[in-house]
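JOB MANIFEST
job_type = single_chain_structure
chain_count = 1
residues = 135
[input]
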Amino acid sequence: MIRLAAFALLASVPLGAEAQDLRQRLNALSSPEVSDPYAAEKAADLARIAADAALLFPKGEKIAVFVAPDCPECDASLADLQGLGVAVNVLDIDDGETARLMARMTLDIVPSYVMPDRLIRGPMPSFVLARYLSD
């Protein structure tokens, strides 16, 4: 609401050439036709997931989780997922192939999650995971 009021105020003020250019750029940003600024990054993530889907979801799991030994956050995440009752592929990064898979996914912290439609870096609360898994 405040943003719309600011645009309306800006639109009503007579401006010089530089300010006119700024007005046009601001209007372009508020346009519904503006594409998703993260579209290329999302497409690249989806391509990486698809390329390694057989390793990530070998038995049709809904989620893959990269974990490491002696990682309390990993243990908590796995307990949360178990509580949600979903099929999980647990990937221990102590295994060299798994560590390379994690790197291909551009993930660098454990736990990290991969779903068929997204990558999640770092620990997530169970209610967030539940929401993502319900889509």
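[summary]
The two ends are 30 Å apart (CA to CA).
Strands lie at 63-67, 88-92, 112-115, 118-121.
exit_status = 0
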